Amino acid sequence: MSDPSLFASPLARQAARNLHTVGWLSENDTWRSDWSYRWNFWRTRRMMARTPDEAAAWLPALAFAVSCEKDANVLPEFARQPLPEPLPPEAIPWRDRLIRSWEQYRPAPTWEKTIRLFALVRLDRRVERLPEWLREARRALDLGWYDRRLRLAALAGWRPRPSDSPPHGDKAEAAQAWVRFWEEVYRTARWKLDGLIAVTARLHLAEAGWLSSGTSPERLREEFHQRVQWWPASYHERSVLRMLLASVPADTSAPEQQQQDIKAWLELTRKDVDWKKREAVWDLLATWQREGVLERCGGSLAPDLARALEWEQEGEVLQAMAGYVPGLAEVRAHPEAMRAIIARWEALSQSDNWLISQAA
Question: What is the tens place of the pLDDT at every residue in 51-100?
């Protein structure tokens, strides 16, 4: 009898190997008993997925991991795993299986439910789910200040699919109610972070053409950046900022505009900027780099990364910077910067600080 694997695509074969690897690891006593091994594994996987196929091939293994996970510390890494756009057609059932794994996950604390929603609104962008997301958003207003902001930040990350024009018929009422909800949050925001959350949601709606003609995505992108800049960073609300930045894709307009956008974000990685902002922004820029955004607009952050590594001492920021994985063209274009980056990471690997040495 012929081996069925001979007829499978390279993507399906890689997905099967990845699933086998995670299944084998799940039988290891150390892997099962210490959540930090699982957290580090999935964090590394997130930082190394450079192509859509590489990310898609981990979806079946990720669905299995979500269904098995018992420790809430690992959930944020699951929720932040990359989902390529557009998704390869044969990977669509894998994404749907991942959605079911998250739906079947039964969170206990409010925080776990928020992470579950954060994952679902990223994975399932169908208009049909808006009534559910709207109910969750309204319930969030009754939570305490921290849980309310975290829940709203998770829900603000919902983006219409590229093919979803402003809906009509039965779907229109839910879509209009969703728009009105975020317009009201924006209008009545008393605190800077509440306004930033609402701007994030409105930006996603504007880019899909769901807002009035007077509200342009370009203006909202500028306002989003300004509000991040103005926000008085708080350690307790650090997760909110990371959620919001993780939901914002790179500007898809002209390369010149992309370069200006990236340059503006780089200003928030300076030494005089609060480390919690530097962490979130480096995470954002590293993600864009892995997605090929910098390459498409003819840019590179290798020299900026080399300069920042000379003085950066915050372990959490270095963890985010470690996600910047230069491509071959970037290495060839900036040999001096790459040598400086390698030398600095080698020096940091000897640090007594666990977070710093792990990042290196």
Answer: 888 999 999 999 999 999 988 899 999 999 988 888 899 999 999 999 99
Give the position of tokens 């669905």.
Answer: 63
User: Is the distance from CB of 69 to CB of 38 less than 8 angstroms?
Assistant: yes
Alpha helices by DSSP H, 69-164:
75-79, 92-104, 110-123, 130-140, 145-156
- Choose among 271, 346, 286: nearest CA to 48: 286
Whole-angstrom CA distances from 58 to 14, 246, 314 are 8, 19, 30
Question: Is the bond into 86 cis (omega within 30 degrees of 0)?
Answer: yes
Query: How confident is the model over 268-276, as a mean pLDDT?
Result: 93
345: exposed, middle or buried (Cβ count in 10 Å: 0-12, 13-18, 19+): middle
Q: pLDDT digits over 205-236, tens only?
A: 998 888 876 788 889 999 999 999 988 777 77
Cα–Cα nearest to 285, from 254, 255, 258, 311? 258
pLDDT-based confidence at residue 2 (cuts at 50, 70, 90) = very low
- What's the residue count for the chain? 360
Given a cut of 70, is residue 5 above it in pLDDT? no
User: What sign for the dihedral angle of Cα 37, 39, 43, 46?
Assistant: positive
Structure tokens at 272: 């005089």
For residue 350, give the amino acid letter. Answer: Q
Residue 130: the pLDDT is 94
**Residue 40: CB partners within 8 Å, gap ≥ 6?**
358
Domain ranges of the chain: 1-105
| 78-102 burial: b if 16+ Cβ within 10 Å, else e | bbbbbbbeeebeebeebbebbbebb
User: By the 8 A CB rule, do 82 and 58 touch?
Assistant: no
